[in-house]
Amino acid sequence: MNHVVVAPDKFKGSLTAREVATHLAAGIAEVAPDVEVRLAPIADGGDGTLEAALSAGFRRVPVRAAGPTGRPLDTAYAERDGTAVVELADASGLRRLPDGPAPLTASSQGTGEVIRAALTAGCHTVVLGLGGSAGTDGGAGMVRALGARLVDEAGRPVGPGGAALARAAELDLSGLHPAVASTRFVLATDVDNPLLGPTGAAAVYGPQKGAAPADVAVLEAGLRRWAELVTRVVGRDLTGAPGAGAAGGVGFGALAVLGAEPRSGVEFLLDLLDVRTALSGARLAVTGEGSLDAQTLRGKAPAGLAAAARALGVPVVAVAGQVSVDRAVLRGAGVERAYPLTDLEPDLARCITQAGPLLRRLGARVAREWLL
Fold this sequence. Notes:
Strand order of the largest sheet: 3-4-5-6-9-10
CATH superfamily of the largest domain: Glycerate kinase, domain 2
Structural class: alpha/beta
Number of helices: 14
CATH architecture of the largest domain: Alpha-Beta Complex
Protein name: Glycerate kinase
Keywords: Kinase, Transferase
Family: Belongs to the glycerate kinase type-1 family.
GO molecular function: kinase activity
InterPro entries: Glyc_kinase_flavodox-like_fold (IPR018193), Glycerate_kinase (IPR004381), Glycerate_kinase_RE-like (IPR018197), Glycerate_kinase_sf (IPR036129)
CATH topology of the largest domain: Glycerate kinase, domain 2
Helix content: 25-40%
Strand content: 15-25%
Number of domains: 2
Number of strands: 13
């Protein structure tokens, strides 16, 4: 028992999970050089999922794909032993918008193009990390990129984005990539919203993507029409399935058309990335994310890591830019102590710009208090 596992999520807007882990490890090594530090950056299916897979030994496979507004961009999937990890946010995410929000027209087409590349390369399993999407198109763009045909009453292709779906009249899935039928698709997400209604994709997440109230109504109408066509073709209604509303409804498209199985994002990725193996026999696990708050405890990556470590009898501490959860609640979630950057630097702007050196100092502090 002489190793420590450093398994943080990203510090959004500041550092990737790998960078966070590297800075913490450097601080630990300064104080406890004889302790082995194992880096295991984690994610929950959203931003950072691709990078976490690459850090775990998957290989990067570059793909040129359409961004959320159609502009080509360079993205990739991660592959190991025939399993491809596709991060929706890296191809169709908010951070990939070139000119600001596009709630009515942003598409998941690029995500479908990345999946198509993985299928063509012979991958037998596709793990689709959902989160951070720029649009609300129900996965229509993704499905069309895989070979589906969606047209209006005049037989013309329906335009991209959720708003255009209201004009859809016919869906033809006969041209789907032939490997779809034999491929296992896994949805890595901790969002359990349905596709439609007051807790659905448009109502809950549309405003986060720049949709005004009138836009939400337009998107809801488009999703409803899309769902009617999909349900008619596949013969089952999955609009109310948990996770159908994830990533602007891409969850629905994957569940209904690709036959995907929904899995807890962090739970599935902990296994896929062999994090539990790294935790076995560890003296300590260090996790964290940019803001440790109530949302963290609702299925985010640090909470999943803490639960996994507790099950193995490994104590857990967390680091974060800021912490807004009291100590008793954290302990109930399996986190013995939280170390915010604001303990060292009260100015939040400086915490973001100087996160690396501050994390190194916190790593040293963790080592002094838990490893000596």
